[in-house]
Design brief:
Elements: E1 11-22, E2 29-44, H1 48-53, E3 62-68, E4 78-80, E5 86-94, E6 103-110
Antiparallel strand pairs: 1-2, 1-4, 2-3, 3-6, 4-5, 5-6
Length: 116
Amino acid sequence: MLKYRPSDFNKTVQFGTVKTEINKVNMNQIVRFVPQLSLKYAPKTRTMTQQYTILGTKLEDTILIVIRHNKGLKDKLIGLMPDGKYYDIIGVSPDDSNNIITYDIVTLKLKKGAIQ
């Protein structure tokens, strides 16, 4: 069972989708991030054993964040972190306990490609 203090959730991540628009000046395509959901999160670190275990897998270059349980979070969304980098949601591990306050662990992978 995860235990976090409210002060642990001191960073904000925005989740949204990508929309392709046409620039009317030069008729180029522009890929824009459209935010849909803004959530506070706590970073979650892996142990060294966990880091060594995921070497060579698709989870090698991923990060983990912990959020309060939110049913609106879907795998198809993209996360915009405070450092300005975009991340794909690889997986959401919900807390299925009967506790009043539950948390989800979200696995994020750095997104390849340009988004403005």
